[in-house]
Amino acid sequence: xxxxxxxxxxxxxxxxxxxxxxxxxxxxxxxxxxxxxxxxxxxxxxxxxxxxxxxxxxxxxxxxxxxxxxxxxxxxxxxxxxxxxxxxxxxxxxxxxxxxxxxxxxxxxxxxxxxxxxxxxxxxxxxxxxxxxxxxxxxxxxxxxxxxxxxxxxxxxxxxxxxxxxxxxxxxxxxxxxxxxxxxxxxxxxxxxxxxxxxx
Length: 200
Hints:
13% of the residues lie in helices and 36% in strands. By secondary structure, it is mostly beta strands. The strands form two sheets. Strands 2, 3, 4, 5, 6, 7, 9, 10, 11, 12, 13 and 14 form a twelve-stranded mixed beta sheet that branches.
């Protein structure tokens, strides 16, 4: 196996430094294209949706999830995490993540569950609009890391929403049924990386 670098993800989000730099803004439009298994399910999207950070644009590629959540906040663990994966100039990757704790069911997460199940069963595209998965405005934690699944590529620009969502225990069960069980990568060493708090 190839040696991994010192910038792996996920990590514990703690001791962040306040930044006045730009946070992501999203302009999502268009529809989901397919459900692909690599081997875990991910929903791919047609061109037309992007996030911008300052003057840089990143096109939405796909959305997928992890249970339990991969990142922790000040050592606290959470129930689930949804990742929106984007690509920019020179194939630079950017992931917008939302962390969820147990509580009320989330309608957008339920749409991901229902359309993944239906599309896989019927062999067609999910009936899902990109606006349904667009991140809400607000503050972010930002650091440079990696993909959390093979090939664990570096660098990846990580933007984790500071607002914590809620999912129901039943939704966690449904998410894990689609991934054949928990699929979170263990925490990696921070290795002195800076975490910024932006926006909000």
